[in-house]
Specification:
The complex is a heterodimer of chains A (464) and B (262). Chain A has 464 residues and is of the alpha+beta class. Chain A is 36% helix and 19% strand. In chain A, the strands form 4 sheets. In chain A, strands 15-12-14-13-17-18-16 form a 7-stranded antiparallel β-sheet, sandwiched between helices. Chain B has a 9-stranded mixed β-sheet. In chain B, β7 and β8 form a beta hairpin.
Chain lengths: 464, 262
């Protein structure tokens, strides 16, 4: 159904972006065949490094005319294979589009190209006394990738997720047409919100080439609390009670002692406390020290009342680093602790987290497999990892499928959804189909067809 | 084993401005914190008493608000602390600071071991520990990277030198200055903070000292004359390494070798 790339196509691509930006054959690094998790592999026929909207527009016009599949890739930090070119064709890499175009301090927006890294954006706005609130754990992800998965992150409890901060997008349609969606406006009731549809569409509808993002004044103070509990049940049960106290923490993460030990091994650095089995890590931010202290004290008192072993104050740069650097390394640490792993990024109602985690513990025992987890206790988004360890390939495949089936079924039973922030990509589409049923999937497929009648953009993903 | 740890309150951020006219650090409105290097000294002390018994106290010199770092140390597990606070101590250089601390320590009690951090993040001289030891006539070791054992009358330590690690045994009482990053300092406990009472924090002034000669303290007791204080030049040079993995690794290695990181 798709045409193979010919020498003539390569020649035309070279004319658009220059020879040095087109990689073919043996010169294509194996890295382009997989993403961060590496569970899905497929090699592109050619990698094209793009530098601007016009180039992308011309490439898409060519791909449209020739019916060649195109997959967009940022820094390849995804976990569900969304940027893996499962049908081959052109892999369009956006990392050279890494300019921060404008900081608008009147409208409180920052305009960026899609290849800007999250850590670069965060540092840039902070230098200017602003904050870009979404804070996904993978700081070397590109903003284009963050928008494409509607990435969430740790500050979602108070500030929401990426979609809440995208005001406008410049996109290239699969046929090469350039569109501007949304605008530098605070309100918008002008028809269907195509911009919001593109956010989270995992590169299947169009290619994001510029984004106008909301920023907020940088909160002047922030303090974290590390709260140890005797077990995970008591730790997680504290979360709804914290919400009821009417204090809104910026982040509420949960972590178990096991995961902390993996991070210690991985980083070669000791965590400040690991005497207890379960911890929640909270952050509070605000513009005055008094307000932040008040919030912190309310929650600290509450935690002690409901049985926390202690409440540790994480108030200086050094202390924040010692705690948050471990939290930031959990994924890599678990990955380093095993031979192979796969992940489940379900989101459940906040008051059901405990039930879900207990379920994974029981499941681990039943299946005879290790299932460590960590995640966002404040928004119900869990990161659960099934580790292969010493299992044979056959055992592993069977156990993995069984575990996933049971976990997604349990999440659904609890009113949860397949993915909180990592997306569906290639790896989770069967589970999405199973949960949503025919009609929603058909609507999604219909939308995809309207954007991309030839199905050349990131085919085989999300709903197909 | 009775241990005393010397601590200091320093600006909470590295973004402290220097007044271009007076050359003095603008501390107004800037949050403060315990000198990060002192946290390693505190953790070393607390580990030792957990293992070998005894108790830890802290001492600091500064304005009355330096009480905050004593409270913080108590929240981390020390028993009590002393603030040496007197307007006549103001303007002290390394020498006068070390002398003031030594007078305060004499007044505070008898200790088997005094532990200092490597240096402070504001003064950065890394000399106070050694000078305090000199004034107290104690053996002193700097650059301590680990405490390996403790017996009734000795402490066994490893000292980092430029090209080797020296192992040494030092007789009590003595003073050691520990390097940064040798442990992960514990976090202060909110639960303990609720129970900190005023009697855990003692204030001493010049009037409490054995040597009350005002000329030995503060600006008049300082041997150093500061001509000018200015912020260091900032270098934000960036470079991008391109090529395949091997080329990138080679370029990176050349770069870190050129700037003498290896």
């Amino acid at each position: 159904m798709y045409n193979k790339i010919t020498n003539d196509d390569i020649k035309r691509l070279c004319e658009i972006v220059g020879d040095e930006n087109v990689i073919t054959g043996q010169d294509i690094s194996p890295d382009y065949s997989h993403d961060e998790l590496g569970t899905i592999e497929s090699k592109p026929d050619c990698v094209v490094k793009v530098e601007n909207t016009q180039q992308i527009s011309k490439i898409m016009a060519l791909a449209w005319e020739r019916v060649i599949p195109v997959t967009v890739r940022g820094s390849g930090t995804g976990l569900v294979g969304a940027a893996v070119p499962v049908c081959g064709g052109i892999l369009l890499e956006t990392t050279k589009m890494n300019k921060i175009i404008e900081l608008d301090t009147n409208n409180l927006t920052v305009t960026v190209e899609p290849g800007v890294l999250l850590m670069e954006l965060a540092a840039f706005v902070e230098e200017n006394d602003f904050m870009y609130p979404p804070d996904p754990g993978e700081k070397s992800a590109t903003i284009g990738g963050n928008i494409s998965t509607n990435a969430g992150g740790m500050r979602a409890v108070k500030y929401g997720v990426t979609r809440d901060y995208v005001r406008a997008l410049t996109v290239v349609m699969p046929n090469g047409e350039v569109l501007k969606l949304g605008g530098k406006v605070a309100k918008n009731s002008s028809g269907y919100s195509l911009k919001d549809l593109v956010v989270g569409s995992e590169g299947t509808l169009c290619i994001i080439t510029e984004a106008v993002l909301d920023i907020i004044p940088l909160p002047k103070h922030s303090v974290s609390l590390l709260v140890p509990f005797v077990d995970m049940k008591s730790a997680i049960e504290a979360v709804p009670k914290i919400f009821r106290s009417k204090v809104t923490p910026t982040a509420i993460e949960y972590m178990s002692r096991d995961t902390i030990l993996f991070a210690e091994d991985y980083l070669g650095k000791k965590f400040p406390d690991k005497k207890n089995d379960a911890y929640i890590l909270l952050t509070f931010d605000g513009n005055t020290e008094t307000q932040v202290d008040e919030d912190m004290n309310t929650v600290a008192e509450l935690c002690l009342e409901i049985g926390a072993v202690d409440v540790y104050i994480v108030d200086t740069e050094e202390r924040k680093k010692s705690v948050w650097s471990a939290r930031g390394a959990f994924l890599e640490a678990i990955k380093a602790s095993t031979t192979e792993m796969d992940e489940c990024d379900v989101v459940v109602p906040v008051n059901k987290i405990d039930e879900f985690i207990n379920f994974t513990h029981d499941l681990a025992k039943r299946m005879g497999v290790r299932i460590p987890s960590f995640g966002h206790a404040g928004d119900g988004n869990l990161h659960v990892y099934i580790c292969k360890d010493e299992l044979s390939d056959t055992e592993w495949e069977k156990i993995l499928t069984d575990c996933f089936d049971e976990m997604y079924k349990k999440a659904e039973e609890l009113g949860g959804l397949v993915s909180g922030e990592h997306g569906i990509g290639f790896a989770k589409k069967d589970y999405l189909k199973k949960q949503l049923g025919d009609t929603p999937i058909e609507i999604m497929q219909g939308i995809k067809k309207v954007f991309d009648a030839k199905n050349i953009l990131n085919p085989g993903k999300v709903c197909f | 084993m009775n241990i005393l740890v010397c601590i200091k309150q320093v600006p909470g951020s590295t973004k402290v401005e220097v007044d271009p006219v007076t050359g003095v650090l603008k501390r107004d409105g800037v949050q403060s914190k315990m000198n990060p290097y002192d946290l390693y000294a505190l953790e070393t002390a607390l580990n030792l008493t957990e293992k070998y018994g005894g108790s830890v106290e802290v001492i600091t010199m500064g304005p009355p608000q330096a009480k905050a770092v004593i409270t913080e140390a108590i929240c981390m597990g020390v028993k009590c602390g002393t603030v040496l606070s007197d307007r006549r101590f103001a303007g002290a250089d390394v020498l006068a600071t070390a002398y003031t601390l030594s007078q305060g320590i004499k007044k505070t009690g008898d200790f088997d071991l005094i532990i200092c951090g490597k240096q402070t993040t504001d003064g950065d001289t890394a000399q106070v520990g050694a000078e305090v030891a000199e004034f107290l006539n104690l053996p002193n070791v700097a650059n301590v990277v680990s405490v390996n054992d403790v017996t009734k009358d000795k402490i066994f330590i490893s000292i980092s030198q430029d090209d080797c690690v020296v192992e040494a045994a030092v007789k009590f009482p003595c003073l050691i200055s520990v390097d940064g990053d040798i442990n992960t300092p514990r976090l202060p406990s909110y639960k303990v903070r609720k129970n900190v009472t005023d009697d855990m924090i003692k204030f001493l002034s010049l009037d409490d000292f054995g040597d009350q000669n005002v000329k030995n303290y503060g600006l008049s007791g300082s041997a150093t004359q500061v001509e000018r204080i200015f912020p260091p030049e900032k270098n934000t040079e960036k470079c991008t390494i391109e090529g395949n993995s091997e080329q990138q690794a080679e370029q990176l290695y050349d770069l870190i070798r050129r700037i003498k990181l290896v």
